[in-house]
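User: Sequence recovery, please. Input:
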């Protein structure tokens, strides 16, 4: 029999199982509740920013509760925590409260309240598991190290993160997901009770005697900073990669997964991998940091992989430094509280503050610099150590680096293309790499070399765009870049073309382009609107974009655009794109989630509704469910027409729309338009036209042979608010 068993101490495996279960449930609940809430609350930033703040506040509250609980005897801790878990079980099965938004209520206040009363007690109770179980594990084990259990906690978080998009969402309806989570919560209570049964009744004398002085403020500040940078870097990497490199669904899973795995490596009992990666991190940062600023969209996959490697190395190095600065086990709850506070600040900075403060993903290079300032460093050779320790060498080296940087920027600025293109990247990379290697261990020169790489590879180019009025706009939905050429103006949203307006003459400026040309599917619909519905046709468009479709408007028609992103409306009102101002100046622009906005529209108030919200990587599922299509049918007239834009490089939406059409009794045809090479600014597009009236369908399509019947995918069920998954639709 082991010593632990003889003393009545719970086996290590029990604590590992308890921590794994709690972490798994914690990371499973967030996407699950988001999936439940989306149809009711919509996708507006105010909603999800409020939800993010609630999650962060509850997580911090759970860590703070675990810290305060450490002031009482372990046995009493067990009783209190079991009481909290049992009390929170009154909110099972987990889900969103059926409370209705009162008239005139402010969403920024109502949404946090709704989340708190729905899942607050459950999330709070589960969030305390990781630090509390480690504290309990240390009780009765004066020589035991509880910190490696945090590696198990993050493995559980990683499992929950991966399980939702790959297993839970594809296999289970929302109703079954709720019951699965609730069953897991009851299992967690049983495991916690088993752990609590082995807690000693009083404080451990050996622990109390070993308790040193409390950590100084400087050390606590370092804990917070070392938690801040990787957390912010994880979100900034997700934004940077999807904005400047490649747009695809579920991309956010990879940075978050690497972030969680970095904890498992940094806090593992075996230190080999953590120490090796930490010693390599400064070199990786200086080599890859500058390169990533260049974007290199033409080599998007390579660049995305490089960005993920950079994130992983930074996270491992800084989390390893956290591990090295950990206090004695008796103070671990305060340590985790400070680390969690830093992580929350990083999330708020990158997720909430940066999109409003910056017009581009400037948080990405700033956090790379912060990582360079915090990452542990050692001199490359003994000779370099002696060199940098000579009096005045740090100042001289810094001055030399600044001088070379200024000279390089002067040379580049005199090139014909200026800073818009990185010339001779190999030479710049070699210079930055050599400077970084030589300056390792000398913090100030190293940071100057790193900053030089960030500036030369793309920082100055991005800065020039930021200084150009109206060239770039950022919102919570991404970065929009406006580019003016000799005969056109383009709008790029991340890596997705969002619109083109021809310039030069009034006729060219009113010409529909890209996915919306007269021969496209939506072009057929708009040209037939007056014929089918008369001169006063009522037309709605979900997704404003550059407003290109407005140029089909006729004088007596009534147009309404539904747009979730205020930045798009601002681009239109500022006349950067003049489609709406020139062609449909009387059109209404309704801001907010389109599904919620249409719920307030009168029945039969539209003749045509165009859905144009699915061309980028973020496919709003709640706009494609059976319930959503029923809402479209309600606002359309008896013979109304629904046009759905399904052009998408990553997701095949045909089965979704086909299944919804069949479930709702619609007749559906699809036009895959492939323009000729002679057409200016015309883009391949796929539009589905749906109506419940055969005569209307014939008039709209003109019995053109290019229109094809939208085929069903065998075995594919229509999406609903209770079940939807994007996984089988990805174009690998």
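Assistant: Recovered sequence (732 residues):
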């Amino acid at each position: 029999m082991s010593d632990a068993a003889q003393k009545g101490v719970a086996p290590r495996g029990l604590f590992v199982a308890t921590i794994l279960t709690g972490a798994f449930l914690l990371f499973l609940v967030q996407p699950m509740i988001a999936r439940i809430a989306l149809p009711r609350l919509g996708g507006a930033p105010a909603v999800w920013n409020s939800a993010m703040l609630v999650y962060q506040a509850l997580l911090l509250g759970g860590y703070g509760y675990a810290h305060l609980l450490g002031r009482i005897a372990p046995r009493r801790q067990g009783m209190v925590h079991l009481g909290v878990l049992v009390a929170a079980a009154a909110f099972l099965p987990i889900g969103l409260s059926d409370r209705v938004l009162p008239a005139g209520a402010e969403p920024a206040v109502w949404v946090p309240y709704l989340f708190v009363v729905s899942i607050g007690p459950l999330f709070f109770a589960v969030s305390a598991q990781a630090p509390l179980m480690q504290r309990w594990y240390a009780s009765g084990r004066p020589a035991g190290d509880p910190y490696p259990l945090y590696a198990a906690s993050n493995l559980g978080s990683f499992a929950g993160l991966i399980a939702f998009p790959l297993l839970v969402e594809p296999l289970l309806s929302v109703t079954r997901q709720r019951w699965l989570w609730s069953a897991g919560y009851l299992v967690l209570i049983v495991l916690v009770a088993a752990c609590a049964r082995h807690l000693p009744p009083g404080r451990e004398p050996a622990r109390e005697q070993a308790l040193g002085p409390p950590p100084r403020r400087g050390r606590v500040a370092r804990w917070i900073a070392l938690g801040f940078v990787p957390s912010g870097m994880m979100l900034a990497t997700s934004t940077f990669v999807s904005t400047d490199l490649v747009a695809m669904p579920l991309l956010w899973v990879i940075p978050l997964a690497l972030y969680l795995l970095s904890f498992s490596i940094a806090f593992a009992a075996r230190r080999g991998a953590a120490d090796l990666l930490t010693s390599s991190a400064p070199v990786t940062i200086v080599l890859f940091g500058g390169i990533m600023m260049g974007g290199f969209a033409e080599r998007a996959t390579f660049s995305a992989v490089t960005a993920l490697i950079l994130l992983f190395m930074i996270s491992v190095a800084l989390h390893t430094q956290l591990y090295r600065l950990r206090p004695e086990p008796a103070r671990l709850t305060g340590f985790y509280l400070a680390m969690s506070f830093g992580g929350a600040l990083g999330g708020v900075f990158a997720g909430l503050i940066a999109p409003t403060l910056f017009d581009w993903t400037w948080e990405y290079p700033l956090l790379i610099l912060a990582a360079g300032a915090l990452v542990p460093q050692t001199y490359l050779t003994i000779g370099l150590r002696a060199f940098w320790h000579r009096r005045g060498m740090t100042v001289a080296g810094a001055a030399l680096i600044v001088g070379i940087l200024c000279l390089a920027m002067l040379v580049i600025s005199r090139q014909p293309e200026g800073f818009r293109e990185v010339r001779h990247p190999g030479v710049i990379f070699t210079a930055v790499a050599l400077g970084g290697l030589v300056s390792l261990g000398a913090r100030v020169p190293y940071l100057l070399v790193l900053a030089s790489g960030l500036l030369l590879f793309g920082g100055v180019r991005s800065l020039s765009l930021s200084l150009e009025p109206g060239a770039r706009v950022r919102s919570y939905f991404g970065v929009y870049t406006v580019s003016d050429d000799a005969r056109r103006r383009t709008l790029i949203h991340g890596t997705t073309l969002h619109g083109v307006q021809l310039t030069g003459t009034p006729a060219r400026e009113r010409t529909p382009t890209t996915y919306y040309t007269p021969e496209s599917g939506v072009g057929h619909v708009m040209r037939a609107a007056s014929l089918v519905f008369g001169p006063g046709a009522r037309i709605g468009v979900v997704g404003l974009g550059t407003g290109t479709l407005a140029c089909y408007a006729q004088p007596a028609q009534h147009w309404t655009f539904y747009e979730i992103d205020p930045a798009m409306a601002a681009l239109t009102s500022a006349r950067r794109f003049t489609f709406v101002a020139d062609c449909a100046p009387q059109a209404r622009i309704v801001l907010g989630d389109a599904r919620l906005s249409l719920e307030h529209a009168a029945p039969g108030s539209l003749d045509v509704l165009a859905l144009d919200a699915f061309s980028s990587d973020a496919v709003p599922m709640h706009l494609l469910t059976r319930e959503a299509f029923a809402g479209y049918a309600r606002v359309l007239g008896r013979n109304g027409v629904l046009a759905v834009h399904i052009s998408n490089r990553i997701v095949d939406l045909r089965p979704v729309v086909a299944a919804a059409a069949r479930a709702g009794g619609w007749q559906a045809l699809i036009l895959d338009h492939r323009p000729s090479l002679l057409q200016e600014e015309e883009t391949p597009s796929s539009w589905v036209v749906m109506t419940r009236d055969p005569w209307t369908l014939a008039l709209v399509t003109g019995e053109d042979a290019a229109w094809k019947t939208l085929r069903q995918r065998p075995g594919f069920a229509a999406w609903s608010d209770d079940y939807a998954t994007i996984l089988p639709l990805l174009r690998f």
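The radius of gyration is 29 Å.
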